[in-house]
Automatic annotation (TrEMBL):
Keywords: Cell membrane, Membrane, Protein transport, Translocation, Transmembrane, Transmembrane helix, Transport. This is Protein translocase subunit SecE. It is found in: Cell membrane; Membrane. Essential subunit of the Sec protein translocation channel SecYEG. Clamps together the 2 halves of SecY. May contact the channel plug during translocation. The gene is secE. Pfam families: SecE. One of its GO terms (cellular component) is plasma membrane. GO terms for biological process: intracellular protein transmembrane transport; protein secretion; protein targeting; protein transport by the Sec complex. GO terms for molecular function: protein transmembrane transporter activity. The chain crosses the membrane at residues 30-51. HAMAP family: SecE (MF_00422).
Length: 62
């Protein structure tokens, strides 16, 4: 397979065989990713805060 036919077939596949999502689906997916990322960041932040306080308490004992 040469490069020219590869490029032509790739363009044809992108135009005719790929199912592109709608704009509203992309918006909903983006909102879902943002909310999930914020929740994950909050959980990791709380774990970090708890671990920091635990280590501070442990080192203050000695």
């Amino acid at each position: 397979m040469n490069i020219k036919s590869f490029v032509i077939e790739s363009i044809d596949e992108m135009k005719n065989k790929v199912t592109w999502p709608t704009y509203s689906f992309l918006q909903n997916s983006a909102v879902l990713v943002i909310v999930a990322s914020l929740i994950f960041a909050l959980v990791i932040g709380l774990i970090d805060l708890g671990f920091e306080n635990l280590m501070k308490w442990f080192y203050d004992l000695f």
